[in-house]
Amino acid sequence: MNETTQISNWNLDLKNYLKEFTFDAGLPSIMLLLCCLLLWLCIFRKLMKILLTFASFFIIIICFKKTPDYLSNFLLSPESKKLQNQNFLSQKIELIPDPLPNCAKNANAIIVLGAGIYQKDLPSIISQTRLLGLTELLKESNYKKQWESNKTPIIITGGYTNKYISQSEAQAMKEFIHYTYGNSAINYKIITENESKNTYQNSAYSREIFEKNNYNKNIILLTSSTHMFRAKRTFEKQGFQVCPIPVTSFESNGSGIFNFANAVTTVGLLNEYIGIAGYGLKGWLKL
Q: What CATH superfamily is the domain 99-251?
């Protein structure tokens, strides 16, 4: 697949720099530093006022308790919103919808998307949460016996996204699944996809695996609830019939009133909007 091979040269460093200095902490930080410089030099006072005002409002908005709620409204499915409300009112946290959507019974494979790696055999917190969602799906589902008897393939997708670790996200997640699901994981055919560095490549390389093994493309797609909007449409563009199982991403009630914990969530949601716009322009989404 020539298109996939070309995109595999994704420059993660450049992507991270652009993110940090467009809608992450780098933007207000640079503005505030520039304001300090202008203040000391006593020049461009009007520009200094504009920069200081913009940086202040930016920090206030991304740290505000309700900002993640406002941004997530478009991204979350009705099922995800309902699940978050249930979790807020209940002492027991449910990671995936219960009951499962009817489309789950027709799935011939499960795809789990990676989201970073901390160190060898230790995927990121987001990846761990998705694996916990997978564990809940496999243990609590009415289709457990059916999936085990069919040796349903589970494709874990995520490449070498940390240049300091000689292990892919998928490999780390495959090791970690033994902590979340135990030895019962051997009842499934777990396949790692180790090349992808973004959601589009997750879908494109997964398609190669399915075509190579002649798997039916009727799948359960498991990823974070706020990522599902983009992920589902990206996989559908590759010809998959997607049954979405979103994993709860964040607490809907936020933290405090103005809190940097809210800023982390807000920046993640902004990343989704930028991703949706970019994927739409590239033609990577099924709209």
A: HUPs (3.40.50.620)
